[in-house]
Amino acid sequence: AELQQINNYGMGGQYEPHYDMSTLHDMKVQKRKPTERGSRIATLLLYLYEPLAGGATIFTDNGARLRSKRNAAAFWYNLLPNGDPDLLTRHAGCPVLAGT
User: Fold this and answer.
1) pTM of the model
2) In b/e form, how buried is each residue of 27-58, taking b as 16+ CB within 10 angstroms?
3) For 30-69, what is each residue's pLDDT tens digit?
């Protein structure tokens, strides 16, 4: 397990596209398997605030878009059942246009 992370993007804040697990390239360089320490198996994203505009979470490779809604949650697995990274989980936080 890892420590929780809390982010408040604020006006104009965003999060660049990324994976929440190690990619095969990362693991090859570090000489480890996906299930070894360092690969986040799953992600739980809690929305504590709802911006007035913007702030959605988008999945860049599968077209999914999650609107930021106060007290909502999103959950996804970052690894496939065989332990390989799920490359469809690359996501980003869109800029907050109004509110926080």
Assistant:
1) 0.81
2) beeeeeebeeeebeeeeebebeeebeebbbbb
3) 666 555 555 789 999 999 989 999 999 999 999 999 999 9
